[in-house]
Every structure is written in structure tokens, then in C-alpha cells.
Amino acid sequence: MSVYTASTTAPVNIATLKYWGKRDKTLNLPTNSSISVTLAQDDLRTLTSVATSKSFSEDQLWLNGKLESLESERTQHCLQDLRNLRAKLESGDSSLPPMSTWKLHIVSENNFPTAAGLASSAAGFAALVVAIAKLYQLPESASEISKIARKGSGSACRSVFGGYVAWEMGSEADGSDSKAVEVAPQSHWPEMKAAILVVSAAKKDTPSTSGMQHTVTTSDLFQQRIHNVVPQRFEEMKKSIQDRDFDLFAELTMRDSNSFHATCLDSYPPIFYMNDTSRQIVKLCHQINEFFNKTIVAYTFDAGPNAVLYYLQENETKLMAFIHQVFQRNSGWESKFSKQDLAAFDSYFANTVAPEMAFDLDQDMHQGVSRVILTQVGPGPQDTNECLIDEATGKPKN
Ligand SMILES: Nc1ncnc2c1ncn2[C@@H]1O[C@H](COP(=O)(O)OP(=O)(O)OP(=O)(O)O)[C@@H](O)[C@H]1O
Ligand SMILES: C[C@@](O)(CCOP(=O)(O)OP(=O)(O)O)CC(=O)O
């Protein structure tokens, strides 16, 4: 039995200009363009291996060790598009094995909680599509491949690139111009770091897909957002990235998170993704920026209460003086910072911040946070020799 395999890793991305709303549910075509930062894969990544063989009897997916259904319309769309591209290739070269007619085995692992508001669907669908494109040896560009990932989950199209990424909404009814493009590579602005304050790792109440549909159909504010706010912000944010203008980038990011959550609140009945801890974190970030009289941190929240804080390496001590002070009891610090680093944050707080601080820190905020993930801007999907599939059997290794 000949079993062909391919593997890839894919990253999570966290939007700084949010995708919220679809103009076509089947094709995942958005009502506005969006922008994101791709995060490094040490802490948050999907590893997906795929295999195909004439002898396989059905398409199967094992996600985090468990068999999962591949029946969803979205996944079927991705598989069909990839098979069509492979069939085109085979029709031009009869020496190629007819993989487009064979079944697929897909084995995938996320190294972080799935469906917990940490963008697992983005990394998951990007990895699935990129791994199969690699198995099929498709010559299509990353932007072309991003259109297929988009059909799996809208935000997944942005995880096909590293660095700073835009998803151009496009205007064609068939989605042919709704694709991800690189705004700037990781190397353009490698100093961008991200601290994720995991507020709740539980499954969320309103999934993004239904939440955004509810907003589209019931919120008046939403119309203002997509027509009068986002188009200009999209251009400004791209420019702030090209110019490495953190001040502007941060303000636009915070404003856009607030605007997105305002449309959720304006939905009827309202949707609440942020909780009291999320709101305390927003307040803290504004206090930090005010303290330094400079924007050194930007917060953003997806469809859940977790906070993602973007900041530049050069301001790490200043920011972490506050963040470590408040969240030091949460896990996640030791794996990224040495004891000396942490001591430096504490002494900066004690010697420079505390004597000047005109407000009280809420010492209970850490109770609403389960852990801290310290990461940074990172590359797109990576080739890997690690394979989760046993080539002799075509089944998961463990
Ligand atoms: N590695 C993977 N391979 C294939 N599909 C995946 C993978 N990881 C997640 N998914 C799909 O994504 C779904 C989770 O998506 P969901 O949008 O609910 O959560 P999330 O992406 O973690 O959160 P959010 O979109 O709010 O950031 C899973 O139920 C599964 O169908
Ligand atoms: C708030 C968001 O994270 C929403 C992401 O929504 P999804 O991409 O998960 O939605 P579907 O296309 O229905 O799968 C904002 C963003 O990532 O841009």
C-alpha cells in the first residue's frame, strides 16, 4: 500500500481590525476588510499531517486524538476546492498519481485549548488547507490558497501568511477577490510582542459564526461601522504598520476592538463577549498609557473575554512592571522570562512607578485570569518533518 503524506504547522492570528459580519455565509465573504498580526508558533500552533492512498475507504479527521466529523459544509468546501485543483494538475500530467480521486486521512493537534477564543479555527483550517495543498503539490500562490482556507473559517485565510496580514474583502459574488495578502513580513517590524491574558478557557457562549450574523441583522451601529468607520481605518492601519508607527497602530487597534464590541452590545438581544475582568484590563491599559504619557500598549478582544495586549520590545520593562505586578500569581511567566527579568520588572515598579502612581491597582484582577501567554509576531505556516501519521498504516501514530 502506497501512502503519501505531508505535514505543516500553522499559526494563530489575532485581528487588530476585526472581521465581523458576512455578506455570504456559504463562501465566508465578509462585510469589511480586516487586518491581523500572526503570532509565533512556540506557544500557539496547529500541527497537521495529511495522508492519501488508493486504499483509504473514507475521509477521516482526528483532532487532538479524537475522531471528528468532516461532514461540515465548510470542511467539505475546502476539500472539494483542493481536489479540483489537484484534478486540474493531473489532467495535464498523466504521470501524477490520481490523488484527487482518493480519500484523505487528516491528523491534527493544537498545542493550546480548542474553541476557547484563542483562534484555534484559524490555525486549524489554515493548517488543513496548507497541508493538503502541499500533499497535492499545488502550484497556487499563498493568496490563492488563503481563499480556500477562508471557506473553512474566515479568519483562517489570514493565518496563511506570517507577519502583518490584510484580508481584502473583495467585491465579486464568487469570492474570487476575497483573499489574504501580506501587509508586511515579520522582519519589517519584528519588535512587536503580544501578551495574552487568558480570562476564560471555557467554551464561549455565542460562536463567532452565529454571533456575527445576529449583529448583521439586528444592529444599527453595525452599518455605520462597515460603511463609515472600517474602510478608512483599514488604510490607516496598513500605513501605521508600513511606517512602524506604534502610537497610531495601537490607537486604531483599541478603537477597533471597542467598535466591534459596541456592535455586539448594539445587537438585539445584545451579545456580551467581554466580562468584568476584560473591562478592568481595558482600564488598566489606559492607565498605563496615561502614566507614561505615551501609548505603549494596545488591547484587543475577540469573540470572548481574553485580552491580547500588543506592545513593542523597547517598552517591555515599562509594561511588564505593571502587568507582572498585577498578574504575577498567574502561570506562564517562568517559561518566557528569567528570574532576573522578573526581578527587573518588580524593581522598576517599586522604584519608578509606585512613587509616581496616582491610582490604585486592583489587586484582585488576577483572580479572573487563568494564565498569561507571552508571545510575539511570527512567521506563516512552516514545513516540518514531524509527521502524526504512520506511513505503513495511514492511521494516527499514537
Ligand atoms: N487543528 C484543527 N483542525 C481542523 N479543525 C479545527 C482545528 N482546530 C479547531 N478546529 C475547528 O475549529 C472549531 C473551533 O472554532 P471556534 O471558532 O469555535 O473556536 P476558536 O477558533 O478557538 O475561537 P475564536 O474563533 O473565537 O478565536 C473546532 O470545533 C473545529 O471544528
Ligand atoms: C472576532 C473575530 O475573531 C471573529 C473571527 O471569526 P471566525 O473567523 O471564527 O468566523 P467564521 O468565518 O464564521 O469561522 C475577529 C477576527 O478574527 O477578525
Would you give an account of this structure?
One of its GO terms (biological process) is isopentenyl diphosphate biosynthetic process, mevalonate pathway. There is one protein chain. It is globular and about 75 Å long. By secondary structure, it is α+β, with helices and mostly antiparallel strands. A hairpin with a 6-residue loop joins strand 13 and strand 14. The longest helix has 22 residues. The chain contains 9 helices and 16 strands. Helix 1 runs parallel beside helix 2 and helix 1 runs antiparallel to helix 3. It folds into 2 domains: 182 residues, Ribosomal Protein S5, domain 2; 185 residues, Alpha-Beta Plaits. Bound molecules: adenosine-5'-triphosphate and ligand DP6. The site of ligand DP6 has 14 residues, from helix 4.
Compact summary:
The protein is an alpha+beta fold and 398 residues long.
Question: Which features would summarize this protein structure in a list?
Answer:
single chain; 398 residues; Ribosomal Protein S5, domain 2; 2 domains; four-stranded antiparallel beta sheet; 36% helix; binds adenosine-5'-triphosphate; binds ligand DP6
